[in-house]
Design brief:
About 5% of the residues have low confidence. This protein starts with a helix and ends in an 11-residue tail after the last strand. A hairpin with a 5-residue loop joins strand 1 and strand 2. By secondary structure, it is α+β, with helices and mostly antiparallel strands. The chain is built from six helices and 14 strands. Helix 3 runs antiparallel to helix 6. Strands 1-2-6-7-8-5-11-14-13-12-10-9 form a twelve-stranded antiparallel sheet. It has a two-stranded antiparallel ribbon with strand order 3-4. The protein is globular, with a radius of gyration of 22 Å.
């Protein structure tokens, strides 16, 4: 609740501050279990040290997309990062273009939001991204473009985890929001044992080779083309193999950090959705968000299987999907639930642009 200047004054006097997550958790416990009647509650920061650097300790481990971007801390406990998107540095932007203009991929936005949430809660793991909304795409018109990512811790749970609201928006005169989501944090990654992977019955072979599918039905450049094989396709789904990526391929020289949520794995799962829809409906789907992406393990260094299932209901204009990302050992690495996409034949033209 204090400004950076007041925080420095406290630090010089040896007064240690209670962190917002710890304060919220203690407040919650007091309201739930505190004694009835008059009481006086004193909360002391114990052995906590007031941060003297602008970055939390975990930041030193490296977060690939954030790079050397310097965050600022708000009086409400939020973290704000202003970052330039530049195709010369952000190599992936050259491989994700619509009408010849670079566009920030949804898959990269997810990783970026997870990284800033991790920056705001350095002692916790990103376990889910919930309620992602694509409000408006981020397009680079003429050269680099600056975006602002804000992460605000809002809720601390009884197990020591919490939720962080994250937005990606513009700066200065253009401050509209482009993405919004809630990132769920916990002390450790959950087990995937309670998640049931539906059985898949392939109805037949995919009609194109991977190279033909990439050329005719997809618009992504080589850096994003992670689908290496399609094992089968049916009336309600498709399953394929995906090769993972490394931050160095995406960003050139990095600070050594690894992905939280590999953008190529996520984008390749979305490509499988496109391939199924082109095959069965001759339309191209454009994702508008999803209900939740659950994370059960770090990105794999080995190829994974992605099983895409069409959810019941919907119509030819709006379709909903579940995507299961399965490691080579058969363990579930992540699940994207209720991906929503608007489908249109007019969007087929996206695959006709330059790569």
């Amino acid at each position: 609740m204090v400004s950076a200047e007041l925080q420095d004054q406290f630090a010089r006097r040896g007064i240690r501050l209670v962190s917002p997550p710890a304060g919220c958790h203690s407040m919650d416990q007091e309201l739930r279990y505190g004694r009835k009647g008059e009481a006086e509650v004193l909360l002391i920061a114990g052995g906590l040290e007031v941060p003297r650097e602008p970055l939390p300790p975990r930041r030193k481990r490296g977060l690939p997309i954030l790079g050397d971007a310097a965050p600022t801390r708000g009086v409400d406990g939020s973290f704000e990062v202003v970052r330039d998107l530049d195709p010369h540095r952000d190599v992936y932007l050259r491989h994700h273009q619509l009408n010849g203009r670079p566009v920030l991929p949804m898959a990269v936005a997810i990783e970026l939001m997870a990284e800033v949430a991790s920056l705001a809660c350095p002692e916790l793991e990103v376990v889910a991204v919930r309620g992602l909304q694509v409000l408006q795409g981020v397009t680079l018109e003429n050269g680099p473009r600056t975006i602002r990512i804000v992460a605000t811790p809002r809720l601390v749970s009884a197990n020591g985890g919490g939720q962080v609201e994250v937005t990606i928006g513009g700066v200065e005169e253009d401050q509209r929001l482009h993405y919004r989501a809630v990132v769920e944090m916990a002390p450790s990654l959950p087990s995937s044992g309670t998640v049931r992977i539906p059985s898949f019955t392939a109805g037949g072979a995919f009609p194109l080779t991977i190279e033909e599918a990439n050329h005719r039905w997809l618009f992504q450049g080589p850096l994003f083309l992670g689908v290496t094989a399609i094992q089968g396709v049916g009336s309600d789904g498709i399953i394929g193999s995906i090769a993972p990526s490394s931050p160095r391929e995406f960003l050139g020289n990095t600070n050594g950090g690894g992905w939280l949520i590999d953008p190529v794995i996520i984008d390749s799962g979305l490509q499988l959705v496109i391939l199924w829809t082109r095959m069965h409906r001759d339309k191209t789907p454009l994702p508008s968000g999803f209900r939740r992406y659950q994370r059960f393990g770090p990105p794999s260094a080995s190829p994974i299987h992605c099983q895409v299932r069409l959810r019941p209901g919907g119509d030819s204009r709006i379709m909903n999907w579940d995507l299961f990302f399965i490691g080579a050992d058969g363990n579930l690495l992540g699940v994207m639930e209720d991906l929503e996409a608007a489908c249109s034949k007019s969007l087929n033209r996206m695959s006709e642009g330059p790569r």
